[in-house]
Amino acid sequence: MTRLDYKDTAASRVIADFLAEHVQPQAADWKLLIDQHPELAGEIADVAILRGDAQPMGEPSADAPMNRALFDATVSQAVSMLYDAPSTQLMEVEKAVAAVRGPGVRKLAQDVGIGQQVVLLNSVLAGSVQAPRQVLARLADKFQVSSLALVEFFRRSFAVSSVPAFKAEEGKPGVTLEPKKWRDAVQSLRLSEAETARLLELDD
Amino acid sequence: MVKRDARHESVHAALVNLDAAEIRRRVAVQSPSSPDYVASEVLCSMLRARFAQGTVVFDEVAKTLLARLFKAVERYFRENPTWDGLLRSSSETLKEAVSHTWAAAMLDKAPVSLAEVRFWPFVEARVLDYLRSQLAQKNQALPLASIGAVDDDGAETPFENTIEGDEEDEPSAVLARKLQSERVNKAYMELDTLTRRAVYFRLECKYDWAKAAGLLGCSVPTARNYYHRGVARLQGAME
Fold first, then answer.
1. What is the pLDDT of residue B182?
2. Taking CB atoms and an 8 Å limit, are B99 and A62 in contact across chains?
3. Which letter does DSSP use for residue B205 in this model?
4. N or C terminus: which one in chain A shows less Cβ crowding within 10 Å?
């Protein structure tokens, strides 16, 4: 894939925000943008000239043609770029989770509805227990990240968690290949019926 | 700060609870009118979060979004023949424009990219940004001193002395209307950078000379010269 020296320029961002607000910008709209950003006047003028009265871009239809050869020549590098470059969102999640320590965990457990069962929250954050829907939504809101990034973070945390060295007390030793389901984790705590029901509802 | 659309966030919440087979089925839906169609903003969010990276789900999301990008940019170029001169300047133009846009969306360091909120305006801005860079490379600014007139005796007259005085300063109303025509627009894009901008600032924005010159980073007389040169060339394109 040919890779330009991509630079996220101020002009790119300003114009992208502008086009998001103006589906069919008129000359007066462009002029106002120049007035607001005189330092970018030249770039804005060039884009205004280029765009002219072009139809805005939108979702392509299912039967829209595509240069298949060009796509095939490009796709592997496009995907590789995603493997090579770190995700800002995952880094934000990592930072947010790392910042939750000590008394912070207890407060967070209260805030997301888990209450006193801090061990459950720790297990969720470590990825060893699947986050129930409501807890996931509240964590996403609390950390200001997407639920997609959170779930991916938990998946990776589980994948790199160390395998415990243990001796099987009964039967064969086993290694968990998947995070424990929320229901199983809650029930394993053998809490009161009311508390168990309350916690299970967090996955509704 | 850019914020995601609540509708898209609810799609995120639904997707994380689906199994891989169902996610793949929905991602494969191609018709935007289908209720299971996954919006490009959501696909972009999935990739930027590296959701399910290392699995076939991740690779299929990437291929789907990239295919949509190729289709949309190809159509955008096809429907705007004014850019033919720029697009033909290299056989790699479509690939480069898509590459530029893909990198912009995936490498954006903002916690939430505009691409996750309004994907197509984001793409359009990046494609236009790419075309702008192509335009800048194509039309390097020509110093006015290099352009002049040579009479039959071989005497040279610098360009700025061939330009009409202030009484010819008024923007041409006819030219302004004609700027909508494809031929004139193409000629517009053939102008060197400063000349083109001088015409735009005076003709389209109707800035006074002081402001136009300030935006061009030159003196008022030089701005006038750029403008008049541009107008002369565009009027030539109208004939």
1. 73
2. no
3. S
4. C
Contacts of A181 (CB under 8 A, 6+ apart): A129, A130
Other CB atoms within 10 Å distance of the CB of residue A10: 12
Using the Cβ of B142 and the Cβ atoms of chain A, whether some distance falls under 8 Å is answered with no
CB A190 within 8 A of CB A163: no
A129 DSSP β-pair partners: A180
Question: Would you call B158 helix, strand, or coil by DSSP?
Answer: strand
Q: How far apart (Å, rounded) are the C-alpha atoms in residues B61 and A61?
A: 17
**Best to test chain B binding among A3, A4, A33, A35 (most B CBs inside 10 Å):** A4
Q: What is the pLDDT of residues B66-89, one digit of tens each?
A: 999 999 999 999 888 888 878 877
- Longest pairwise C-alpha distance within chain B: 84
Give phi and psi for B169, each to the nearest 5. -80, -20
The number of residues making up chain A comes to: 204
pLDDT tens figures, A135-147: 999 999 999 999 9
Chain-chain contact of B120 with A51 (C-beta, under 8 angstroms): no
Q: Which stretches of chain B are DSSP H helices?
A: 6-15, 20-27, 40-48, 56-78, 84-87, 93-107, 119-138, 173-178, 182-190, 193-199, 209-216, 220-238
Contact state of A13 with B114 under an 8 Å Cβ cutoff:
yes
Whole-number Å distance between alpha carbons of B99 and B88: 17
Burial of B223 (0-12, 13-18, 19+ CB in 10 A): buried
**Angstroms from B160 CA to nearest CA on chain A:** 22
Question: Which amino acid would we find at residue B237?
Answer: A
Render pLDDT for B193-214 as a digit per residue (tens, 0 to 9).
999 999 999 999 999 999 999 9
| Structure confidence by residue, pLDDT tens digits, A2-24 | 444 455 578 888 998 999 899 88
User: What pTM did the predictor assign?
Assistant: 0.84
- Integer Cα distance of B129 and B103 in angstroms: 13
Residues 66-105 of B with CB under 8 A from A: 66-68, 70-76, 79-80, 82-83, 92, 94-96, 98-100, 102-104
- Phi/psi of residue A31, nearest 5 degrees: -65, -40
